[in-house]
Amino acid sequence: MDHLSTLIPECLDLIITHLLLDNRQADVAALLQVNKTLAATAIRHLYADPFQYPFHPRAESYYYGNEGEEADLGKVKNGSLGSIDGLARMLLGRCVLGSVPKVVAVVFPELAAVAVSQDTNTLVSPNNNPLDYMTHIRHLNLCIPIAYTWQHEVLHTAPPATLDYIQQEKFRRTCGAEDMLLSYRRRLEMVGDPLPLYHQFFRVQLMREVNWMLVSCPCMVGSTGVVDDGDWVLLGEQLKSLVIPVSDVERYLEVVCQFKSLEHVRFCLDEMLEYLEEDIEAALEEEDEINIERDVEDVPGVLKRNKFRKEQAMEVLFKFVQEHGRLFPGQLKTVTCPESEIWQPWGWISLPQKCPDEVQFRILQLLPPLRRPSVLCEENWMQFLAHPRATDLGAVQKIDAYFESGNSEAYERLIENRGFLQRCRRLRTLSMGSLGKGAYRWAVEEKKAYLENNSGGSINYNDKRQESSLWQKDKIEDRHLYLRHGLVPLEIAYISGSEELPLEITDEINDIAYAFSETLTTLNLSIPNSFDKSILNNGDEPTSMWTIRIGRGWVDLPNLRDLYIDARVVARLVLDPELLVHCPNLVSLSLYDDATIDYSLEEAIRNEWFPALLSKCDSMTLQGWTALTFHPETLSSMREKLVVLSMRTACGTDDLCFILPPPLAAEQEQEQEQKQEQGRHESGWYRWTWDWELPWLTKLDLNSKFAYEFQFQFLASCPLLESLHLNIHTNLAHTRDLDRSILSISGAKKGMIVLPKLRNLEMLGGWTVVGGNEFLEEFLSTLCPNLEKLVAKHWNGVTLSGFLSILRKKDPLSQKASPSMTPQHDEHQDSNDYNKVREMELAGRGMRGGDDESELITNLGGLGLVYMGWESDDEDEGDVLRGVEFSFEYRKFYVLKSPQN
Fold first, then answer.
1. pTM summary value
2. Where is the sequence biased in composition, kind Basic and acidic residues (predicted)?
């Protein structure tokens, strides 16, 4: 006997549920063939929601060209549409049908032959399968595949009867396509070939009718073929969730009394009643043309009619929910009307159909409050806001409440009810837009009161052991929930600014860091990159540079692992000097601002960080003011873990960065040395000595002053380095020499730095190769013998032939022909005369479309180089090469040891 059959029903249900959650429908279907016990349980799970997406995965087919066409067409043919149509055919075959709509008869012609005798109630059915499917259906959703039927491949596999039907004049006039704005059809590129559009209208109509037939028609549950009171059911009476097309909601309103078990409704916006402003403006400009070409109302008339139809549909939608609530109070749990994708054929074309916020809110007010939700997110957020005070939030552990900028009404309701956060006593993950100044002051006050009541003792989270003594000290229940539940154990906080409150977020982030200091593991702050900069205020006197200050009032955060602050494009990010000192267990640190492009000596000496101990940090990326004020001695504590190090300022066009002019930099350095000799420890630039050891470093990215002051001897302590980026490209012609001294290691046996794992080397700016082509070869071969990509832009002292000579001397990787490109060489030349290297790309200041590509390839001996532009003085090959990029990636080529004639 099969071991599964011996399990109690509850265990078997749990096993099958997990299999389905893991998308193992085939394994569950296999149980149908084992025995009756397992088949009965499996079929109940498989047919509870027969049209769910995992059962009918859509075929992804976005290829361009002819390659693989047959395979793609096969995938579409056997994909979601085929399986859904087959399932719908089988289920409709078990329904007691009266008349069959034309659109259904086209796809399922056998159903048109079904006849019901009014005298004998005898069902003539094409499907007399003895298995009982219909009684198990609890969820009905036929909207899922409609958004993916625009593909031209679908048309190639559509039955001839369908294609004939959608091209008939009657269907074209009545389906609704003729009422579509011509400007939108142009954007869809369907003016000349409207067949995909007609097919989409056809599928929408088919979904609408099949859905209604399954809900409204009596369904056979026996196998005798004779309908009596014991052998049929109304599917609508047993459904727990249902998707209703908005265009058809009136029919469902008429039979709303059937939906006594309904708990979840989703309304599908299946008509195209709204257009983007750009389409409307284009249509108004073409109004005369439209009236001439099409015998329809003018554009304003079409838009007015669509608006009226939508208002009517929204009113009926509201009445459906209202009437259901009157008949079955409290039965409906959720009602949604999400943005429809039915009329968005491709990702780059958007025509969203939306239910107005006010309509959704009115509907949600008819429903009961959420029942102890554990998560507040997009699916239930508006329903919570409809009953903010009546909802029990004691079980909420996660909040995901990002609102798009256009959803202002929801955002305003969120601001009005922001006090709800205090009632989420089990909250651990928070993803929230800015709620304004003081939004988390309650948490700060709770933390202070808790510390005071505990006389500085340890903090307990969700712990009631001290409840009785504390409760006697404070009876104010609403203001001091921590007395009963402990402090909120928030661990992860993602906070994003809003255009309305761009800088209030600094107050919020500081309060969060203080209030949840003991439990916080991840703190992520993103400030919007577009808003009215006139409202920026740095908290002190106005300055020409906008600043955002973070870190005021922070205390030790012993569990903080990830700190991410993104102020790019917005303002200068200024951190409290002791901020990093409070975060000793950071693993990842990322701080960005794009406002700090240049700086002056006066600005440079204003702020500084204290050195911190970050022994667990493996990734540090600082860009902008936070990089300039970083205390370099912190790197001494990062020896054992640091893998990625990036120190940058913002760059301009063509990777231009800012470095203080050499005289000013020297003057500042001399002044700082004098202050140190006099014992004056005032703020100033730190000296980057580059004498630290970071043996686990794999990526180093520096620009501006950090790259300009970089000491190559540091690389001797980085044997695992894989990527090195140094950018000193400025308008002030800063230069650095590359000679043998930079590779020398004093006291070492070999005396030269070697990085065997370095694959990517990018050096931009005035790097001057002292020793010309001879040292260039030594530099690349010694420092990075296994290099795969080289970017060398704006260098001095290097010729094109110098770079090529290095490539021609590389050891051959293979003697076999490249599979991706035919080598360019003389057929009779010995294969030993050329070596194989990966693809190379040339690039420089004068990037153009490759006007001189053929001339370049000829001059280089037909080496198969990809040209992107380079700069010379139109003399000879010996000129200094200003920009070169070799990318030894993807494809492979043969490079001759000597140029062809």
1. 0.77
2. 824-835
